[in-house]
Amino acid sequence: MTVVIDRTTPPSAAKSPGPVSAAALARRKAGQGGGLYQKRPPIYPKLVHGKWRTIKWAMLIATLAVYYVVPWIRWTRPGELPDQAVLVDFTGRRFYFFFIQLWPQEVYFITGLLVMGALALFLVTALFGRLWCGYTCPQTVWTDLFIAVERLFEGDRNARMKLDASPMSFNKLWRKTGKHAAWLGIAFATGGAWIFYFHDAPTLIRTFWLGQAPLTAYISCGLLTATTYTLAGMMREQVCTYMCPWPRIQGAMLDEHSLQVTYLADRGEPRGPHKKNESWEGRGDCVDCNQCVVVCPMGIDIRDGAQLECINCGLCVDACDEIMVKMGRPKGLIAYDTDHAVISRVEQKKVIYKPIRARTIYYAGALSLVSAIMLWGFLQRSPVDLHVLRDRNPTFIQLRDGSIRNAYTLKITNRGFEAETYKVTFKGISPVTLKTPGESVSSNTLTVVVQPDQVRAMRVFVNAPADALTAPSLPVTFSIRSKSVSADTRTVFLSGEANAR
Amino acid sequence: MTDHVPEKDAHSGVDTTGHEWDGIRELDNPLPRWWLWVFYACIAFSIGYWVLMPAWPGLNNYSHGLLGQSDRAQVDQAIKDLAAVRGAGAAKLKTATLAQIASDPQLQASALQVGGSIFGDNCATCHGAGGGGGKGYPNLRDDVWLWGGTLEDIQQTLTYGIRSGDDQARISQMPAFGKDGLLQAPQIADLTEYVVSKSGRQASPAAVARATPVFAEQCASCHGVEGKGAQALGAPDLTDGDWLYGSDRASINGQIQNGRGGVMPAWGQRFSPETIKAIAVYIHANSGQ
Question: Which of A14, A284, B16, B96 could form a disulfide with A269 if both were Cys (CB 3.0 to 4.6 A apart)?
């Protein structure tokens, strides 16, 4: 049965002159034929105090700290290898993460991490709504920081609205200039920190100012300065609403059992102003104070229900709780709750919470599966690789004595941090002789030294007497062994119909 | 078409352009604003481009632009840079002997690089990308050599060529016994059987017996009494399994009839001695010896 929750018509500008959500303002304007281009209604989020705001501040500090500190963590590696714990080395084509060093061909580990990240996001969203958007998304974190700076220069909501409405004055000028200068400074620090992930940080911070850093460093820094300034300073909630695909995708993850910032309409309606000592009988707890609207950084009215713009940050929860305490009513008129719970209460049924349901089981299952595969792949990872490329032109050579020669190029990858001496052997045909250019004698085994962190290509000629060849194509194996590691790679030895027994 | 006063379209509430074609009127919707800004930015960019880059053609010249951009100059610079990069390695190849190059791993590695790339551009046309050869074009990957397979032999063949017209080219000529009427067809048929028998295959004993004196008289001077050939003369060994023009009877018969011999260009006329050395090292290292 579909339950229609009665939300009384939101107050229109004509009825009450109080604050109205920015989204409602825009809708009203568009309805009146306000032109083809929707103008952004300015949003002046009011400062709020409370549990969720404190968590949001903590997350802001934690995420920014991670972002700025990580490139400066040192991690000693042998030889000429960089001593930076986390480094994306494009020049050297390596990715360093503490004790892990990845080569470009191992990029599937990064892909796997991204897949895990996406699945974890699905799971968290299905369980708790858009926590990522509300607390940890860089757009949210930097916007929050920029709003804090704005508040520092221009004051809180009312002061800012008054300032924007006032004509240009010295007071307005210095406040605006100061704000934009501080924003640009933060934006530059953002772009400036980004480039440290790609070069040795202590070196780069010196060369950057001396004008000796690579051009890409300046370009990346400039681009990130520009995007941070515009996205966090000017565009803010429009990035989430219009540019980001996630709000659209999340609709597929959320259902009536997902915890989301919810206006408990069952308790709040019918809403209306409340005078002191007036009875609470026959009316809802919502006193229509609009505090939930004025603190919202997205400019929406949560009382309209779950909506695309809502980033689940919980600031309206704090705002409402403050009022409820003043009113002497219980907290949690706006709270992290499920749609199902609200409907159950309206229907006077038992409220049930179902964190374990088909959707969350699937997401958790997929996440565990991918994590297990990744972990297995990582534990299986060998510090040595052997690739064998068989010459295909000519496929084989007949020598003067009738023996057949196949030529192979061995690519030996030494991912270790020390030079390794490998013994190269060949199995599958006996007897054979192996030879490599530069060595005048043939033997059963070859020895090759591969420098640390290097790939070495080695040509190997394999001679087999005609009577050892039992088929035109024989499966064979190249093996390399060093003191600690080994690798085998299968290939074939071809000799043609005419030459095989 | 007559001038019309722009009017509002009743359905969409948008102004029309006032133009009418067969009763169809056009809405005067503005261009998307992002598109307009990109358009203006392109105009601004193009003005800057005119000033900075070569842009305007003149009668016998063109505007060079303030940046002095020139593709031709860039290519010149790139070639100079390449020469500078090659400098050290190329100089070593110049002075080192073939034996020194083959025994020094570093020199050999750079010779293999240079030789391999030159081989791919010039030699692969006839000898194949892998040096495997083809009918009439010797296989460079095995251990059978018409003119010798030492580094020095290969260097000489590369420098002066074979039947190339160069003064010092390697020259030999197998007579066209059939075409020039030196031998009769039955004799050539017998000789074919004889050559087949030399490489250890079944042949008619009567024909072999008939051909034995003919071989001794006509062929042994170059190919040797045993048919083992002679590298000094470029005469192939007839006892091994390697056949430049084919191993079947028809091919052998045709070769005695026509006495074909290919031409290898004198690469010394095109490449510097150090490049020739690099190719020789590359061919030798990849061959079957």
Answer: A284
